[in-house]
Amino acid sequence: MTRSSAPGKIYLFGEHAVVYGEPAVPCAIERRARVGVEPRDDATLRVHSDDLSLDGFTVEYAGSTDGKPDIDVAESLVDAAMGYVDEAIAQVREVTGEPDAGFDVTIESDIPLGAGLGSSAAVVVAAVDAATRALGVELSTAELAERAYQTELAVQEGQASRADTFCSATGGAVRVEGSDCRAIDAPDLPLVIGFDGGAGDTGALVAGVRQLRDEYSFAADTVASIGDIVRQGETALADGDVAELGRLMDFNHGLLSALGVSGRSLDSMVWAAREAGALGAKLTGAGGGGCIVALDPTPETETALRYLPGCEDVFRAELADEGVRRLE
Ligand SMILES: Nc1ncnc2c1ncn2[C@@H]1O[C@H](COP(=O)(O)OP(=O)(O)O)[C@@H](O)[C@H]1O
Ligand SMILES: C[C@@](O)(CCOP(=O)(O)O)CC(=O)O
Ligand SMILES: [Mg+2]
Question: Which residue ranges does the record assign to the GHMP kinase N-terminal domain (predicted)?
Answer without folding.
Answer: 84-172
